[in-house]
Please model this.
Amino acid sequence: MNGLGMYGIMVVIAGIVFWSRRRAMYRPIQGSGIKILLPMFYILIGFYAYSNLQIHLKIWEIGVASLIGVLLALPLIWTTNYEIRQDGQIYAQKNKTFFIALITVVAIRIVARQYISGLDPASLAMLFLIVAFSYVAPWRIVSFVKFRKVKQSQALGEVEILNKV
Model:
């Protein structure tokens, strides 16, 4: 796949994340929050797609890609929070900083793609898939834990209200 196609895919994925995140700010999160973890499994499908290709990556390259991904996850983790609103439902907190952090992550990935050379396209794609998984997985796991804490506080609040009645 040429570079323009990869940029197009990155823009589409970023657009989907923006749309779903914006939607979560105005629509309550239903159920147990398992849907928060789904993007990690979507990326795992990408690993399967590259499993049949000849990819020549060194352990240190995989380690550096993973470390960069974890570092990129930090601003997303810090800017993702949940709240119980007046209707008693759980929503993602409105936070413009999250969108700035997401745009920064996408921009860093685009700039990095321009400067990394010497790798075949499949290995480069696998490196960027590792980076993506390394920031999506911690971000989504921590987001799920944050959601579960808010959900538990919501359940405790309902129990306290029932005990008062």
User: Anything to note?
Assistant: The longest helix spans residues 121-164. Helices lie at 3-26, 38-50, 59-79, 96-115, 121-164. Strands lie at 82-84, 90-92.
